[in-house]
Specification:
single chain; mainly alpha; two-stranded antiparallel sheet; 50% helix; globular
């Protein structure tokens, strides 16, 4: 997507800030020594879109493609991302391991054909095939899924997002979409959720440290059902369809309608639904949480806007745009944002708004873009300490500002499924 923009002081300020952040990320820092290889060790950050070199490579690649930087930083960060054996096991997904590095390479240098690319594509296909086989076995016994089976960060939705950009005409993407259609169908499971729960009701506890059992339904874009909704809708918009796809989109939307809450500041959705809330028919919380991309109203609204466009449903599209506009107009919700990054913070909210506004049917969302970009520039000037990556770090902040300043998207937003 490219939008022709008139140069303004705000866009110049956005590009200046993006450039200043990028200048601090020109070269990868020295690889730390003596760092453990545990799942929380920082040595793993290199192959992470969220916290490491793979994500920074995307920033430099986008800027090089728009004439705002050179290619050597791209190569340097990709070398760092692939310096150690890449994970292609349990923890691998769009944001980490082989898929993350493959996605970074093909986004940052889309016309390059390095020798390793075929091997990387094969490894991603192998991982997706293993995940699909495991999901098929789970469905066969009527068990509930884990979030990591289907979510954007680690699951098949994230792998599908990569395939939608990398191999949109491929059979593997269609297999992922067909799996997501099945995910929306009821599961005949004899568990605490009973027959009231949707097919994506997860076996994972709603809170890792809480006492409640019986799993939950996750609503967010990062780990919940709005990620699959966005992918199914984006595929329809590219005329990539499998049997039952539009019905699956409608099922998810109807479920979101059931759990939509009304407040003076506009509609909102709970982040998760527990067994107790499922049986009560209402959430325990009484108001919206932080308006983040990953769990809040912005991500849920953008997914429904995409669904409305895909289904040719102007009422749903308008309702989603109104929900996002009212969320942005609520100072109480905005006050809950405490960092500038993509996942939980100002950059994620601004990026989601940017793409939603580009397709909005009235002027309320486009009119909100300048104000939110000013807020992002303000908070980007004093970022909280964070790793260097795209999702949780300064690279994502810089890329959001660069996109606003130039009006150009080089498909980096696939990492969030907002476009």
């Amino acid at each position: 997507m490219t939008v022709t923009l008139r140069a303004t002081p705000l866009r110049r300020a956005a590009e200046t800030t993006a450039s200043c952040i990028t200048d601090t990320l020109t070269e990868p820092p020295a690889q730390p020594t003596g760092v453990d290889y545990g799942p929380r060790g920082t040595r793993w950050y290199s192959q992470s879109l969220s916290k490491g070199a793979a994500g920074v490579a995307i920033l430099h690649g986008v800027r090089a493609q728009t004439g705002h930087g050179g290619w050597e930083p791209v190569r340097a960060w990709l070398r760092r991302a692939s310096a150690e054996t890449l994970n292609n096991g349990t923890g691998a997904g769009l944001w980490f391991g082989v898929p993350a590095v493959t996605h970074a390479l093909t986004t940052a240098m889309p016309h390059a054909r390095p020798a390793a690319l075929d091997a990387l594509d094969h490894a991603v296909a192998d991982l997706a095939g293993r995940r699909l086989a495991a999901a098929e076995a789970r469905l066969g016994v009527g068990a509930r899924p884990s979030l990591s089976e289907f979510d954007l960060v680690r699951g098949l939705t994230g792998l599908g997002a990569h395939l939608l950009r990398r191999h949109p005409g491929g059979d593997l993407l269609r297999r992922v979409l067909a799996y997501l259609v099945r995910l929306t169908e009821p599961v005949d499971a004899d568990d605490e959720a009973g027959r009231l729960a949707p097919g994506w009701w997860s076996a994972d506890p709603p809170n890792a440290e809480g006492p409640e059992r019986g799993g939950h339904a996750n609503v967010g874009m990062a780990h919940g059902i709005t990620g699959p909704l966005a992918l199914l809708a984006l595929a329809v918009r590219q005329d990539i369809r499998v049997p039952g796809q539009t019905e699956a989109i409608s099922r998810i939307c109807s479920w979101l309608d059931t759990w939509e809450q009304v407040s003076p500041s506009g509609p909102w959705w709970p982040e998760k639904i527990t067994v107790a809330e499922l049986h009560a028919g209402q959430p325990a919380v009484n108001g919206p949480a932080r308006p983040s991309w990953c769990y809040g109203t912005p991500g849920v609204a953008r997914a429904q806007q995409l669904a409305g466009i895909a289904l040719g449903d102007p009422a749903r599209r308008q309702a989603a745009e109104d929900a996002l506009a009212r969320c942005l107009a609520d100072p109480v919700q905005l006050s809950r944002i405490i960092d500038p990054a993509l996942c939980h913070g100002w950059a994620g909210l601004a990026a989601t708004l940017w793409y939603a506004a580009a397709e909005a049917r009235d002027t309320s969302l486009p009119a909100a873009v300048p104000h939110l970009m000013r807020r992002l520039i303000q908070h980007a000037a004093n970022p909280t300490p964070a790793p260097s990556g795209l999702i949780s770090g300064p690279a994502g902040i810089a890329l959001t500002l660069h996109t606003f300043a130039t009006g150009t998207d080089i498909h980096w937003s696939t990492s969030l499924l907002i476009n």
